[in-house]
């Protein structure tokens, strides 16, 4: 933004925008006033209905009308309060060209990097690198869109862009405790920022945004600075230190202690999703160590599996084998006894 | 004498106010912001930084902008 031509262009754009904004203030005031008028007309209608109901001794209808009137009075008092607030707002002084050119010169003095994108109509300044409570967040570019200044009451006219993003570990879009998706949550600065833009006090606007970026409000951040660094658990999203994070040997994702366990057979770390539960002893086991019983199909850990059979099937098999052996022994004895009897008879 | 005072703390109002002749900017700040530290603010007179003992002149434009403002999350 070196040449006078650019500055004049910017100043003209801002002048037009501030004029439009002042008109919008009155348009909004008129809209609210019309809303009040509608409400008063509704009140008058309900009042007539109440009169009619009383004339006919329709007490139920009277009660209904009274209830509606009560609600209307409540809404009207809110509307009046809002209107009063709007009426009491001091009128914004429209800036002249000289004042706006002085604003632009002041911005160049106050900020190291000032830029103007003629095509996109963006006036931007870059802050110094921001460090809050020892957390480095990098420099930010405050980009004011001259085109969007007219829509100040409907949508933000500026963006706050991290030039060296150091976002929160749990959310990439949060580049500052009070910035998400390049939008600043102004908090206590809202009224002053709005007034500065309405009055074309650009340097005050940029200074205020910069002040918010340089302040950490621990009562209302998108992400607390305590939780800024670290690793986010893939399971539950909890952000914790590197020391408390485990990597699953199978899916290679990182998990906190609550979302991770280990195979009781081979001691490998596994996440709760990759872990299988032995259906005999209920201990976690990995998919390499788990196997199915060939008899009943249950998934078992190596401790509960013997010769491809789970301990239950193995036991049953042994009992069956023992029973068979005993039966054979008895049969053998019986056969021997029979043969002996036969020999004696002969 | 009258000066233009822009208070960027709170509502960001810009008013013409009366101050006595010979009033220094530091005195003016202390009266407007009692018990506050001037180092926590950006103070500009006619868009320029000034010494604390600068004597205010008629029609001076004084801006006070806090250096720390609490943001929030929606």
End-to-end C-alpha gap of chain B: 44 Å
Number of DSSP strand runs of chain A: 21
CA-based gyration radius of chain B: 13 Å
Helix content of chain B: 10-25%
Percent in strands of chain A: 15-25%
Uncertain segments of chain A of ≥5 residues (pLDDT<50)? none
Which structural class is indicated by helix and strand composition of chain A?
Answer: alpha+beta
Please give the most extensive interface between any two protein chains, plus how many residues each contributes.
Answer: A-B, 38 and 23 residues
How would you explain this protein's 3D organization?
The complex is a heterodimer of chains A (346) and B (74). Chain A is α+β, with helices and mostly antiparallel strands and 346 residues long. Chain A has helices spanning 4-55, 59-88, 97-110, 190-198, 202-213, 311-345; strands spanning 113-117, 122-126, 130-132, 135-138, 140-145, 158-162, 174-176, 179-180, 183-184, 231-232, 239-240, 245-247, 254-256, 260-262, 269-271, 276-277, 284-285, 291-292, 299-300, 305-306, 309-310. In chain A, the strands form nine sheets. Chain A has a four-stranded antiparallel beta sheet with strand order 1-2-5-6, covered by helices on one side. In chain A, strands 7-8-9 form a three-stranded antiparallel beta sheet, with no helix packed on it. In chain A, α1 (4-55) runs antiparallel to α2 and α4 (190-198) runs antiparallel to α5 (202-213). The model of chain A has no long low-confidence stretch (mean pLDDT 90). Chain B is mainly β and 74 residues long. Chain B contains one helix and four strands. A four-stranded mixed beta sheet of chain B has the order 2-1-4-3, with no helix packed on it. In chain B, β1 (2-7) and β2 (14-18) form a beta hairpin. The longest helix of chain B has 8 residues, at 25-32. The A-B interface holds A 90, 93, 102, 105-106, 109, 177-180, 184-189, 191-196, 199, 201, 203-204, 207-208, 211-215, 217, 219-222 and B 6, 8-15, 42, 44, 47, 63, 65-74.
């Amino acid at each position: 933004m070196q040449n006078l031509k650019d500055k004049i262009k910017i100043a003209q754009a801002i002048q037009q925008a501030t004029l439009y904004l002042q008109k919008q203030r009155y348009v909004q005031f008129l809209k609210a006033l019309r809303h009040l008028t509608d409400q008063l007309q509704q009140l008058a209608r309900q009042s007539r209905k109440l009169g009619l109901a009383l004339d006919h001794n329709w007490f139920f209808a009277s009660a209904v009308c009274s209830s509606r009137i009560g609600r209307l009075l409540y809404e009207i008092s809110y509307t009046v309060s809002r209107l009063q607030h709007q009426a009491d707002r001091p009128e914004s002084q429209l800036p002249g060209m000289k004042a706006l050119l002085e604003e632009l010169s002041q911005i160049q003095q106050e900020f190291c990097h000032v830029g103007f994108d003629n095509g996109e109509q963006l006036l931007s300044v870059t802050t110094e690198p921001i460090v809050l409570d020892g957390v480095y967040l990098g420099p930010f570019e405050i980009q004011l869109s001259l085109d969007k200044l007219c829509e100040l009451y409907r949508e933000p006219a500026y963006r706050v862009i991290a030039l060296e993003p150091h976002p929160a570990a749990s959310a990439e879009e949060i580049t500052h405790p009070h910035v998400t998706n390049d939008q600043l949550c102004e908090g206590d600065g809202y009224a002053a920022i709005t007034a500065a833009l309405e009055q074309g006090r650009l340097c005050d606007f940029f200074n205020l945004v910069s002040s918010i970026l340089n302040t950490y409000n621990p009562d209302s951040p998108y992400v607390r600075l305590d939780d800024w660094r670290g690793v986010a658990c893939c399971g539950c999203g909890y952000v914790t230190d590197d020391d408390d994070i485990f990597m699953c040997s199978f899916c290679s994702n990182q998990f906190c202690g609550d979302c991770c366990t280990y195979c009781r057979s081979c001691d490998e770390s596994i996440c709760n999703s990759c872990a299988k539960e032995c259906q005999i002893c209920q201990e976690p086991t990995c998919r390499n160590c788990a196997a199915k019983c060939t008899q009943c199909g249950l998934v078992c850990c190596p401790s509960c599996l013997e010769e491809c059979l789970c301990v239950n099937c193995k036991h049953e098999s042994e009992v069956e084998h023992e029973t068979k052996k005993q039966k054979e022994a008895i049969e053998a004895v019986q056969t021997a006894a029979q043969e002996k009897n036969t020999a004696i008879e002969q | 004498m009258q000066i233009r005072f822009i208070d960027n703390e709170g509502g960001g109002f810009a008013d013409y106010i009366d101050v006595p002749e010979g009033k220094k900017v530091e005195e003016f700040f202390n009266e407007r912001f009692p018990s506050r530290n001037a180092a926590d603010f950006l103070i500009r007179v006619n868009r320029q930084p000034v010494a604390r003992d600068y004597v205010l002149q008629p029609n001076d434009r004084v801006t006070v902008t806090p250096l720390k403002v609490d943001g929030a999350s929606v």
